[in-house]
């Protein structure tokens, strides 16, 4: 899958947060979980982060226990083991989440509820946005920021960007180039994927397949079958959609 970005959508409320899922979280994730007061939010956090680790394990062909993270100062996960060349991105909104994995290229994925309100700085209120309206424009902007591990405020000028090759002309990200794809998304959501550099991004888009243990509540998540796409593979025919 070299050069292809694996993207998997999941319904967090169907993945559960039992012992099998919690065993996949590291100390940092468990500490963050302990600070979440709302039970449903906590359950979704467990499901999303367990799915991220398991997707990377399947991508690399190793048991989940061999996947180790480091994090940027902004909290973005980086793969420390088994292969530091693997790049990941995670986004979630409500009950939906998206995981993206590839090798050798910085990537960012963003998933937003289409009707989700945003508190915006006064400097961008009323700013004209790119194709698809505000939710789609926001996903493209945030995907770009996540691909380089930046801060959200640094990407706000990119709200005007359209899918395709995007270049930051001003601010902290000036000179950075991405290729941005608008993706088919779960109902009621908008999604975008950004890859650092101008080369088109090919996507293998599908649904996350939870292990049997997650559905049954039994221990064990050692399933290592390769991910299969239940949504058609997206290639050059839909770049920049």
Structure notes:
The chain is 26% helix and 27% strand. It is α+β, with helices and mostly antiparallel strands and 241 residues long. The chain has a single domain, classed as Ribosomal Protein L22, Chain A, CATH 3.90.470.20. The protein has a 4-stranded mixed β-sheet. Strands 6-9-8-7 form a 4-stranded antiparallel β-sheet. Strands 2-3 form a two-stranded antiparallel sheet. The protein starts with a strand and ends in a 25-residue tail after the last helix.
List keywords for this structure.
241 residues; alpha+beta; Ribosomal Protein L22, Chain A; globular; four-stranded mixed beta sheet
Classify the helix fraction into a percent range: 25-40%
Going by helix content, strand content and strand pairing, the class is alpha+beta
Any idea of the CATH class?
Answer: Alpha Beta
- CATH topology grouping: Ribosomal Protein L22, Chain A
User: What proportion of the residues form beta strands (DSSP E)?
Assistant: 25-35%
CATH superfamily heading: 4'-phosphopantetheinyl transferase domain
Spatial extent as radius of gyration: 17 Å
Q: How many distinct beta strands?
A: 10
Gross morphology is globular
SSE string, helix = H, strand = E?
A: EHHHHEEEEEHHEEEEH
User: Low-confidence spans: pLDDT under 50, at least 5 residues?
Assistant: 217-241
Number of helices: 7
Could you report the average pLDDT, rounded to the nearest whole number? 87
Oligomer: single chain
Strand order of the largest sheet: 4-5-1-10
Question: How many domains, as an integer?
Answer: 1
How widely separated are the two ends?
A: 21 Å
Protein name: 4'-phosphopantetheinyl transferase domain-containing protein
Keywords: Transferase
Region (Disordered): 211-241
GO biological process, one term: lysine biosynthetic process via aminoadipic acid
